[in-house]
Amino acid sequence: MFYTVLKGLVLAAGEGSRLRPFTFSRPKHLIPLLGKPMIRYAIDDLVSSGVRDIGVVVGYFKDLIKEFLGEGSDDYRLSYITQEKRLSIAHAIYLSIEEGYIDRPFIVYLGDNILSGGVKNY
After folding, report:
1. What fold characterizes domain 7-110?
2. pTM (2 decimals)?
3. Residues whose CB falls within 8 Å of the CB of residue 91, separated by 6 or more in sequence, listed in order
């Protein structure tokens, strides 16, 4: 059973239009940076901070992200929320609440961000 005080919510639905032509064939969240896809930094940071239940908001190339990340591991579980129309960050959070994923305190992590100190101390 996975339980943590906080749930994680990783936002990875965007098209990455400013990174074209790289994002014509894959989502920006899967573009490698220092040897691993950007979204991996967000997931790893949340897990190292004790978050074990992580929702990933997907949209653009959602199947590639789901295939890459899978269901999680023995250390954490992943759930997916689809944002068909990328309207805003607030909209992604709203969808996560509407679909019943967000049911307790949570932390939002942008899937294309890398935080030098992580989120553990916040």
Report:
1. Spore Coat Polysaccharide Biosynthesis Protein SpsA; Chain A (3.90.550)
2. 0.88
3. 83, 85
